[in-house]
UniProtKB/TrEMBL annotation:
Keyword Transferase annotated: no
Domain of life from the UniProt record: Bacteria
Gene3D superfamilies per record: P-loop containing nucleotide triphosphate hydrolases
Annotated SMART domains: AAA
Single GO term (MF): ATP binding
Keyword ATP-binding: yes
Name under which the protein is recorded: Amino acid ABC transporter ATP-binding protein
Coiled coil regions, renumbered to chain: none
Source organism of this protein record: Peptostreptococcus canis
The entry's keywords: ATP-binding, Nucleotide-binding, Transport
Pfam families: ABC_tran
Ranges of residues in domain ABC transporter: 2-221
UniProt record similarity statement: Belongs to the ABC transporter superfamily.
Amino acid sequence: MLKVVDLRKSFNNIEVLKGISFEVKEGEIGVVLGKSGAGKTTLIRCINGLETFDSGEIIVDNIEIRNSDDMKNMRGQIGMVFQNFNLFPHMTVLENITEAPIKVLGKSRKEAEKIAIDLLRKVDLEDKKDDYPFQLSGGQQQRVAIARSCALMPKVLCFDEPTSALDKENISKIQEIIRRFKDNGMAILIISHDIAFSKEMADKIIYIKEGILVDEKDIDLN
């Protein structure tokens, strides 16, 4: 479902990604591990079109992405759940989720609300649809962010440090919800520093050190 081939990216003539290649299949969870500065965030930003890349390919469902124009054509196929959630504070939970289906997919409000309610059931927050983000806990905001990212029905869902601000109980809940979407056939890519979380969740662990893939024995995450 997601294939990254020889991906390279430089900033100010310093190569940050040095030929990264891996794949995450349909219904599989891949976790990218590595120290701060290893290139994890740059990798996920390139996959989501938030950064351009210098060379290589990103392939989603057999469609090749080589440049920003290709990425525009894939809009909605790659979902992103940000570390700080990025919910719209002036919108209710329901409005946060219906915004993209209405504006990007051209859905009617009634159709968009049906999609949103179904997603809120999947993240166990149907009763919070009329709340605003400030009325929710961090864990609940994370779950709304997941629902919002899935509203465009992406083939690939990416997470940037999904457990960084959560307590143990909320981490368990997020794990349960991520597995639900995996079981529905979505390919999931997670950037994480949490080794215990990663080893429990991952079907595949991708270790990065100084912009290259390395074997587990060659990386120290302490």
